[in-house]
Design goal:
alpha+beta, Cell Cycle, Spindle Assembly Checkpoint Protein, Chain A, 28% strand
Amino acid sequence: MSTYTFSGTDTYSVADVKAVMQNTYEDIIGFANRQIIEYGNAESWIEDLTYILNKKAMKSFELQLYNSSGQRFKSYRYDVSTWGLITSGDKSGGINYFDFPASTKVGLFAQLDKESPNYQTVLKELTDNRGWGTNGSAMDGSTTRERNYVSNSLQLSRSVITK
């Protein structure tokens, strides 16, 4: 007989965000190392994602891959969970950046949590001061769970979505 424990907290700390973003940082910088995104843009995305997570206003975000015709063909989705399920975290990696053609481009999409008390503040900051738009969308397709980045009650679950 197995016993499992569930903790029902939905809070997390700045240190938890820093811990899970370390793995995400490595994923995003991998695209810069492959020259699919510029390093400056990668750093800016990491700062923005960290800001949104620290404000507790994120549902998910995606690194969306586009072919030379501008069509999305793959996405890495990171779903935010804060319910404290006891689980172990994975190491970053598992993305073979050299599988993507040299003409591949990557974009960032974030789904904000409209129920968050910080939603309006975050939306205003992103659109007024950080150059974000509001016309993006999540990618639909076949979804496969890959990795979990965990720190205490904060979990980012990475999935790959393909058309």
